[in-house]
Amino acid sequence: MLTNSVQKFRLFCRFRLLLTAFLASFYCTTVSATQAVLLDKATQEINLTTAVEIFRDATGQLTLGDILTPSIQARFAPNTGSNHQKINFGFTTDTYWLKFSIARTTDAPSDWMLEIPYLSLNHLDFYAPGEAPVQLGTELSAKSKPIFYPLYALPLRTTEQTQSFYLRVRSDYALSIPLTLWSRTAFSQEFSNTLLSQALYFGGLLSLALYNFLLFLSLRERSYLIYTGFALAMGLGMFAGNGYGRLYFWPDAPSWDSIAQTAVFGITGALSLTFAASFYCTTLSATQAVLLDKA
């Protein structure tokens, strides 16, 4: 009887040790996910979503001063869970505050670029220590951007001491917040590569439109003119969706920009149907002409 009691006690102690080890490992994982990101000379690109702490502001009325109070700071939660590699809140009317801390080594550069490659953010406010807030979003002019860039990119200055940065975001669409920190060199190279691929794509569409327009001038066949309009509308829709339309064509028209891609793609769809009908009628007329000649 005594032996059984001893064995049960030992099993209980082992269970407690295993449970304690599990909880300790979970706690350490949580802490490490929200500790300061240390940048060194070799760092070129880093995903910040795993180092972010999140606070949901259901009222949407809190200011940075409110956020910095100890009671609110204690309510920030680390971005953990199965989707901690990205930040996606789905469709929500709530305002979210994101906090991340950064420090650098002595040999690391001080100037970096924070990229947020998601256009559908109505409000995006960035707060850096000792600097004026930067306000961006779909409801503001594209001229409010600190750099000439189709998406959202913010200059970020770091020091050897740990500093905390804050983002305040809200969206009428699905609220997704990808965060990538780039070195200046890597960011410039990535942007150059993106521009090259975009230039090839839009250049191809423009060449296709020009070719069909020349065919229309030569043959006077209406189908080629319709296809020219289709190619141009397709290019303009993609141009608007990638942020270039607002950057180059309508920087001070945020209301139009919010519906531009949908409206232009609607025109694209109508032109594609018109082209299909016109092409079918042309083919049918040609077939009838051949049959009449044989008769």
From TrEMBL:
Residues 1-33 form the signal peptide. The chain crosses the membrane at residues 199-217, 224-244, 264-292. It comes from the Bacteria. InterPro entries: 7TMR_DISM_rcpt_extracell_dom1, 7TMR_DISM_rcpt_extracell_dom2. Pfam families: 7TMR-DISM_7TM (PF07695), 7TMR-DISMED2 (PF07696). Keywords: Membrane, Signal, Transmembrane, Transmembrane helix. The keyword Electron transport does not apply. Residues 50-183, 196-282 form the 7TM-DISM receptor extracellular domain. This is GGDEF domain-containing protein.
